[in-house]
């Protein structure tokens, strides 16, 4: 069977839900996968050039032999939908032909990881047995103005067209409120390889007076530096490590016990996390993060780390259940009832079972 996957992130980026979805798709029986890298949803900005010249990202995995990666080259004017369709019609048609040239089987499934006009075009022009939309974020809130309205319109159109929607956070399921037969709450999870490595690790006793609080992941506009600085101030003898690609400005005058590190390859994440005493998730609370269930939570828990978080998205529910520490009230004297982690194989099984592979 063929799987066409329209990803919200490039293959060559830090390992995220899309990469793990494909990893599980192979395990569940897909023999040929066509990964389509994302197209822009907004007009170009100066900050885009920074990403081009600065190698912030770490790679995810080597590309398996049965995956073909497509790199669409479309004019970045999607917010003006009708002009976009006219200007890019020939190019989108060529993309369809390229995808079809890589298809090997009579049965095809399409999974959309990011709302786009290209996704709509593929649904119109490629016959498939089933179609799904994986709603990983409240996508419109990544954008402003025309781009936000455009993404919202495209998203709602795709929701009405696909056979099933997956939701990575309870809030998203509440927002879109589709009938149960077309909805599947599929929270995030942990890579099974990382989980096995973590379970075989012998953790050493640590100095309770010199702890390591650690964050691994992307640093962008939603990163709550105020929460990080507050933690560093309250525990001056300890160290706060922030590890990952940085797409936002760093506050001046950071305390000396806040240490910044570049992104690490996915294969090295376990080694980095294993040095932590606490995993931290300092995200601002806003409309975007209100619909987030962070993968790093499950990775921290794989290493049996207690987690400190701000009150956003799925993490707010965990704080209320006393499974996670709240940044605002954290104390090493307090105790919580941490959850066990779950792997991607377990998480995605209900979706793949529905496909009757």
Number of domains: 2
Q: Over all CA atoms, what is the radius of gyration?
A: 21 Å
Q: Tell me the distance between the termini.
A: 8 Å
In the CATH scheme, the class of the largest domain would be: Alpha Beta
The CATH topology label of the largest domain is Rossmann fold
- Low-pLDDT residue intervals, each spanning 5 or more residues: none
Strand order of the largest sheet: 3-2-1-4-5-6-7
- Portion of residues in helices? 25-40%
Name of the CATH architecture of the largest domain: 3-Layer(aba) Sandwich
The proportion of strand residues reads 15-25%
Give the number of DSSP strands: 13
Calculate the mean pLDDT score and round it: 94
Largest sheet: number of strands, sense, barrel closure: 7 strands, parallel
The class by helix and strand makeup works out as: alpha/beta
Helix-strand pattern: EHEHEHEHEHEHEHEHEEHEHEHEH
Instruction: Compute the number of helices.
Output: 12
The CATH homologous superfamily of the largest domain corresponds to Glycogen Phosphorylase B
Shape: globular
Q: How does this model look, in words?
A:
The chain contains twelve helices and 13 strands. It is of the alpha/beta class and 357 residues long. It has two domains: 2-189 and 345-355, Rossmann fold (3-Layer(aba) Sandwich), CATH 3.40.50.2000; 192-329, 3-Layer(aba) Sandwich (Rossmann fold). A seven-stranded parallel beta sheet has the order 3-2-1-4-5-6-7, sandwiched between helices. The chain is globular.
Write a short abstract of this structure:
This protein has 357 residues and is of the alpha/beta class.
């Amino acid at each position: 069977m063929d799987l066409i996957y329209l990803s919200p992130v490039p293959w060559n980026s830090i390992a995220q839900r899309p990469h793990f979805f494909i990893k599980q798709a192979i395990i569940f029986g897909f023999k040929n996968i066509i990964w389509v890298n994302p197209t822009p949803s907004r007009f170009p900005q100066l900050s885009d050039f920074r990403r081009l010249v600065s190698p912030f990202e770490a790679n995810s995995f080597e590309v398996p032999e049965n995956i073909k990666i497509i790199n669409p080259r479309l004019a970045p004017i999607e917010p003006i939908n009708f002009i976009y369709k006219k200007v890019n019609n020939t190019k989108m048609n060529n993309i369809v032909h390229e995808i079809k040239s890589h298809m090997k089987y009579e049965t095809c499934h399409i999974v959309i990881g990011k709302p786009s006009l290209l996704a709509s075009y593929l649904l119109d022009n490629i016959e498939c047995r089933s179609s799904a939309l994986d709603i990983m974020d409240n996508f419109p809130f990544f954008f402003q103005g025309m781009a936000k309205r455009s993404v919202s319109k495209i998203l709602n159109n795709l929701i009405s067209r696909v056979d099933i929607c997956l939701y990575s956070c309870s809030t998203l399921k509440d927002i879109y409120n589709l009938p149960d037969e077309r909805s599947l709450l599929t929270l995030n999870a942990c890579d099974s390889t990382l989980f096995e490595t973590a379970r075989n690790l012998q953790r050493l006793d640590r100095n309770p007076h010199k702890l390591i609080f650690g964050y691994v992941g992307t640093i962008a506009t939603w990163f709550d530096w105020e929460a990080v600085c507050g933690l560093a101030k309250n525990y001056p003898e300890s160290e706060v490590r922030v590890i990952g690609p940085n797409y936002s400005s760093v506050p001046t005058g950071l305390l000396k016990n806040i240490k910044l590190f570049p992104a690490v390859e996915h294969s090295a994440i376990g080694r980095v996390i294993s040095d932590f005493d606490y995993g931290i998730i300092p995200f601002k609370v806003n409309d975007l993060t209100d619909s987030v269930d962070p993968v790093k939570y499950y990775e921290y828990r794989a290493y049996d780390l207690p987690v400190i978080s701000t009150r956003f998205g799925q993490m707010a529910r965990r704080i209320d259940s006393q499974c996670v520490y709240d940044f605002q009230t954290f104390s090493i004297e307090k105790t919580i009832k941490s959850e066990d982690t779950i792997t991607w194989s377990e998480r995605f099984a209900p979706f793949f079972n529905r496909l009757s592979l």
